[in-house]
Description:
Elements: E1 2-6, H1 9-14, H2 16-29, H3 33-38, H4 51-58, E2 63-69, E3 72-81, E4 86-95, H5 104-119, E5 124-130, H6 134-144, E6 161-170, E7 173-181
Parallel strand pairs: 4-5
Antiparallel strand pairs: 1-2, 2-3, 3-4, 5-7, 6-7
Amino acid sequence: MRLKKLLTQNEIEENFDNIKTFCKSAIRDCKNPITRRNMDYLLWHDNPASLMYKLYIKKSFMMLTLVYDNDIIIGLSGVEPYNKKVALIARRLFELKNFRGQGVFLHYMLEEQLKFIRNLGYEKGLITVNIHRKYLYDVFKRIIQGKAVRFFYFPFSKMKIEIIDEPFMLNNVMQYGIYIEV
């Protein structure tokens, strides 16, 4: 596996076909209707929730990280501004089914995204998960409590992580949040 960072809108534009192909694979891998809508590659021009819309119409991502296996994207996520001190990280995070559980985000994307926002002067990264992915939020809670020992070889053991106890609205969707200090 290898990481590719896309830092400019031109780089994102140049990878349109690869990202569209990834979205097709993501939809095949997933049954969740919200995730399917987020990975829409057919009607994305009319779907503000889709990754493609956010990348190519709204142009809201400051950075996009792609992880490849050979020449095929197997995982991606982006970075968006939230406020002057906090950037949203792990946006539209998706890993293809055959690569889940291998730490694609944790090994390849997380540190790059944190370095990126640190260099821009942000103080924290905010990972949000919706109600359908609340189990990820629960994993972070277990890490902080020292109960998810398998994760301690990841960078989390050295990071200052803050769990937001109450869900909050972000883009009209109830979210659970995890701050990571950069």
